[in-house]
Amino acid sequence: MVPGADNSNRSTKHKSGNKDGNRYLKMAFSEAGVRATQYFKEINDFYNAKQKKKHPAVARAIVAQEIAKNCFDVLKNNCDFNNKFAGKSLSKRKSMQWPRLANPDA
Description:
By secondary structure, the chain is mainly alpha-helical. The protein has one domain. It has helices at residues 23-39, 41-53, 56-77; strands at residues 5-8, 11-14, 84-85, 88-89. The strands form two sheets. It has a two-stranded antiparallel sheet with strand order 1-2. Strand 1 and strand 2 form a beta hairpin. The radius of gyration is 17 Å and the shape is globular. 14% of the residues are buried.
């Protein structure tokens, strides 16, 4: 999710980043970003604020990048998710039931 850079001497050129990194992880974080904007009001507000200033595809990539940062922090520090996105607390809590049932009454 990080754009590439081509550095030589004192010049720096930024690349789009579309071919950098693992394409499957990019796809997974992008899909997670789309679903997160659907299910979490705070993430949807963040997306809408970014979308006002940038292209919708760029706004989705920024949401995916924030999710990737959270995943990296959880894996690096070996801790639980702190229920925050871009510094704001999420209103919904993580479900402790796994696997989730399609029908709660089942």
